[in-house]
Amino acid sequence: MIARITQALLFLLACDGSWLIAQTTVEIDAGRGPVTMQIPSSYDPAQGTPLLLLLHGYTFDADLMDAYFDFSPLAEEHGFIYTYPDGTLDSLGQRYWNATSACCDLEGSGIDDVGYLTGLLDLIASEYNVDPQRVHIVGHSNGGFMAYRLACEEAERFASIVSFAGAAQIDPTGCNPSTALHTLQIHGTLDPIVNYFGGFINDFYPSAMGTVEQWAAHNGCPGPPVMDSNINLDGLIFGNETSVLRWQDGCSPGGSTQLWSIFLGGHLPVPSFDMSPLIFQYLLDHPKPAMPIFVRGDIGGDLVHDLSDVVLLLQHLFTGILVDCLAAADSNGDASRDISDPIFVLEYLFNGGLPPPPPFPTCGPDPLGAGCAVPPCP
After folding, report:
1. What is the homologous superfamily of the domain 19-285 according to CATH?
2. Contact (CB, 8 A) for 161 and 183
3. What span, in angstroms and rounded, lies between the C-alpha atoms of 337 and 232?
4. Residue 240 in contact with residue 219, Cβ under 8 Å?
5. 352 — phi, psi (to 5°)?
6. pLDDT value, residue 367
7. Upper half-sphere CA count for residue 166 (Cβ side, 13 Å)
8. 14-15-20 Cα angle (round to 5)
9. Class of 293-365 per CATH?
10. What are the CA-CA distances from residue 11 to residues 4, 16, 291, 371 (Å)?
């Protein structure tokens, strides 16, 4: 028997030993102690790597949340950097995120979790080559509330967020995302903790439908939603119990909204074999749109900076002539297009002034998101 097992193992190794390769687990500290981070075996410092941030719910911690979703093998398979930090301990010894007035800074500490989590992401990006077009959040319960707060205040950082049994703010006017992004709400219709139909924890919170309607509006999705085929997320409910609604037609670039409703599902359903792979596939399917490649100040799009660029920019400002790349027209990189831009170019060309900020003098992506209808670079 042992000989046969040995032969089988040797056969597997001879065929493919890649299954033995796994992530490298490291720790990183953004000011609140060590945070576990998993680096895929495929990581290449020369290539941008997608990143997944997992946020636990109230009373959970990072390790329990990781064990529940079991994202580690999926992150390795798809080449994601994967990290799962801990929230702060309250006086009862429970970990939480200060997300919304409803959940879950129950003792009013006012701790800055937006600052902490964005600082963590900045620290990771300073040490690893993170693809800014593919940074995603998955949050459960309080972590889902926190995902929405990050989307409201730091939307430009993220391609998509997934809120599982969380909710948005009760007042949509308190959320002003800087850009559209992809949002997915997953919720059990019999959730007794964060009610599918809305409710009160420390303050009121909207229903699952109210949450996604808020984000359909934020994302510029006119609706109505489209119903997709049912899927199976709850391992204790027979069949495909989860309905799928999608707001995606006519949305702003980079934005869409979905609602996955687990019929008769609770707050923490027993995961089906499909649950985590389906969530991960959602992340894979929803990167940010590709950034245009251009040279700042090259309004004419001929990859040369000269007086013709100044003339085109003045025509754009004062006669309304269209330019193909608005990002290039922002010559001084201050996120606006005004008379200071042609003056900046003239100073650079004829008076030894500062050169335009990146991307310059070669082609590069637009860090400010102004956009190019016809990117001048190949």
Report:
1. Alpha/Beta hydrolase fold, catalytic domain (3.40.50.1820)
2. yes
3. 50
4. no
5. 70, 25
6. 60
7. 32
8. 80
9. mainly alpha
10. 10, 9, 46, 53
Mean pLDDT of the chain: 90
**In which residue are the tokens 């997320």 written?**
233
Identify which of 33, 38, 42, 96 has the alpha carbon closest to the alpha carbon of residue 70: 38
Asked if 299 and 321 touch (Cβ cutoff 8 Å), the reply is no
CB count in 10 Å sphere of residue 20: 9
Checking if the pLDDT of 260 tops 80, the result is yes
Peptide bond preceding 224 in cis form (omega within 30 of 0): yes
The phi and psi torsions of 62 (rounded to 5 degrees) equal -60, -45
What pLDDT was estimated at residue 365?
77
Cβ-contact 47, 250 below 8 angstroms: no
Specify the amino acid at residue 271: P
Beta carbons within 10 angstroms of residue 142's beta carbon = 31
Given a contact cutoff of 8 angstroms between Cβ atoms, the answer to whether 348 and 354 are in contact is: yes
Q: Would you kindly state where each structural domain of the chain is located, as residue ranges? A: 19-285, 293-365
65 CB-near residues (< 8 Å, 6+ apart):
54, 55, 56, 57, 84, 140, 143
Q: What is the mean pLDDT of residues 232-245?
A: 97
Name the band, by pLDDT with cuts 50, 70 and 90, for residue 369.
Answer: low
Q: What is the pLDDT of residues 121-178, one digit of tens each?
A: 999 999 999 999 999 999 999 999 999 999 999 999 999 999 999 999 999 999 999 9
Helix (H) or strand (E) holding 325: none
pLDDT in tens, 44-71: 999 999 999 999 999 999 999 999 999 9
Q: What is the pLDDT of residue 15?
A: 42
Contact 156, 369 (CB under 8 A): yes
Cβ atoms 216, 208 nearer than 8 A: no
CA distance 59 to 200: 18
Q: How confident is the model at residue 240 (pLDDT cuts 50, 70, 90)?
A: very high
**Encoding tokens for residue 31?**
């000011």
Computed on alpha carbons and rounded to an integer, the radius of gyration of the chain in Å comes to 24
Query: CA–CA separation, 177 vs 250, rounded Å?
Result: 18
